[in-house]
Amino acid sequence: MRNIHNSSTNVTSISPTRPSLPLRGRSFRALVLAPEMPLGDWFANLDALLARSPTLFAERAVILDLNGLTPPPAAPEPVSTAPDGPEAGSSPTPADASAVAATSETPAPAGDAAPTEQAAPSEVPAEAAAPAVAGPDLPATAGPDLTALLGELGRRGIRIMGIEKADPSWLVPGLPPLLAGGRPADATTVPVPAAPEKRRPSSLVLDTPVRSGQCIYHPEGDVTVMGSVASGAEILAGGSIHVYGALRGRAIAGAGGNPRARIYCRRFQPELLGIDGLFRTADSTDPKLRDKPVQVWLESDALRMAPLD
Amino acid sequence: MAKVLVVTSGKGGVGKTTTTAALGAALAQQGQSVCVVDFDVGLRNLDLVMGAERRVVYDLINVVQGDAKLPQALIRDKRLDGLSLLPASQTRDKDALTDAGVARVMDELRAKFDWVICDSPAGIERGATLAMRHADVAVVVANPEVSSVRDSDRIIGLLDAKTARAEKGETMEKHLILTRYDPARAERGEMLRIDDVLEILSIPLLAVVPESEEVLKASNVGSPVTLNNPASAPARAYADAVRRLKGETVAMVVPTERRSFMSKLFQRRAA
Fold first, then answer.
1. Count of CB atoms within 10 A of residue B169's CB?
2. Are A186 and A90 contacting, i.e. CB atoms less than 8 angstroms apart?
3. Which residues of B touch A214 (CB under 8 A)?
4. The most confident of B124-128, B186-190, B205-209, B249-253, by mean pLDDT
């Protein structure tokens, strides 16, 4: 998943007299979260979305759009539809649900050292467009409790990079910067339909032998090889490794911390075995196990191996 | 439609060039029109084994770069009708081969011949991947020895990943030729047995070429072994291999040298 959408590099020289510090501009794609008034409902929607795609906000720039939280007199009608991105390159949005996307641009600063960050809104119709006008939870005069809001988001693993459309008086020190001037962009990277796929218990089955020099890396689940694993090949699995042929290469199970992972093979001739960070080379395995069907597991911080029959 | 065949192995010195020349000559002997192409730019050998080293004017690089036309570079074998050689350059390096240029030359060769046999350089770098890139069939040459077998396994992985066929999602037909095989030594456990090699590589066996002094003899006089002494054991193994490539069913035997009754007698006594 790429966050960097496009990069514009404008190098600006500040002063002709001394060597200038090159300053670059870069534009990233940011997701925009727009909380709406019954915050309880909104968070419930957000939790449902996160349950479907837990990694939606992971390692992504997220902007908080506070338009929906402005006091009622100031915001008589909720923004329902926004035009598609006027900029070249942004295509019509097949927008889904409560995730809303926009580009936040950080253009190259001209002359001055301080980068002027800007972000602009784009609202895409959300499922939860209906309510929001109803009784506000917050007093109209005071601003919303942004610290609490950010805390709630942080508890869900969402870190806010910037805030837009907020009354400057709401901001207290320590909050992310107030942004303006972002351009809308499509939410192509929002993998909402793809998300259930990720959550499937993923086990990888290979019908072909794993050849020397090939590396199978499957961090999420078990790897099953219906052929042999050649000398010089490597299998790295987050779960267990099953080899229905000869295991002549390297097998590393439980990569990423799973002490319950095991390695099973039909013919035991491995170069290297590993489970959850513990390794054993071929030299230090019992020669009696060679060529036999064997399983390898972890028991009280030691690799144990035994014939299967 | 022409078939493009790549002879490859990963490891050097296992008999790729010998095999290329022998298969090419055997196909021509069986009435096919064949071109053998040397992809070993910088270390060309095929012209020597084919006995054409004194007739090279233009080479593969010249054709790829458009300095010469394909017919100008092709060397027709004097002994066999239907056998041609496209030599490699000895002075240039592999970087002179461009993807597009090689693709164009292979298309031209396909139009001209029944079989195009590419002699791959050793290794897994650009020269080797370019040689295998446009192939329809791969002949993997291995010796009954662990390092050769492991390198061949690596090459088989690349054949399934880096060839034009693999990238189109098609499968590449792969065959094994086991060379320098000595049944007696394999029996004594001094070299891998055929079953061991097949078990590791798990591709179909095309031929077992026995270790024989005929191979060196033939390459020293600049003649493919199938042409130099068709009755020799390696020549018969290659001839059988070619029949299998053409789709005939031939029983798999490991050919042995035919000895006269007297020499058999002496062999016994010495042993």
1. 6
2. yes
3. 157
4. B205-209
pLDDT for the residue numbered A290: 92
Task: Pick out chain A residues at pLDDT < 70.
Answer: 1-19, 71-143, 186-201
Distance CA B137, CA A180 (A): 61
Largest CA distance in chain A: 82
- On whether ipTM exceeds 0.90, the answer is no
DSSP-derived 3-state class of residue A103: strand
Q: Which residues contact A167 (CB under 8 A, 6 or more apart)?
A: A66, A70, A143
Averaged pLDDT for residues B46-51: 93
- CA angle (A137, A139, A145) in 5-degree steps: 75
Structure confidence at residue A158 (pLDDT): 82
pTM of the model: 0.61
Cβ distance of A214 and B199 shorter than 8 Å: no
- Tokens 């990277």 — which residue? A189
* pLDDT mean over B29-42: 94
What chain A residue is nearest to B202 in terms of C-alpha separation? Answer: A209
Residue A185, token pair as written in the block? 């962009």
For a pLDDT cut of 90, what percent of chain B falls above it?
Answer: 83
- Enter the tokens of residue A285: 């395995």
Choose the closest CB to A227 out of B124, B150, B202.
B202
- Check whether B158 has a pLDDT greater than 90: yes
CA atoms within 13 A on the CB side of B242: 26
Tokens, residue A124: 């895409």
The pLDDT value given to residue A73: 54
Q: Please tell me the distance from the alpha carbon of residue B180 to that of residue B169, in angstroms, as a whole number.
A: 34
**Strand order across the beta sheet in which B3-8 lies:** B75-76, B83-86, B34-38, B115-119, B3-8, B137-142, B173-181, B205-210
Mean pLDDT of B115-138: 94
Residues whose CB falls within 8 Å of the CB of residue A126, separated by 6 or more in sequence, listed in order: A34, A95, A97, A98, A100
Q: How far is B150 from chain A (nearest CA, A)?
A: 7
Enumerate the β-bridge partners of residue A215. A234
The reply to whether residue A211 touches residue B200, judged by beta carbons under 8 angstroms, is: no
Using a CB–CB cutoff of 8 Å, tell me whether A248 touches chain B: yes
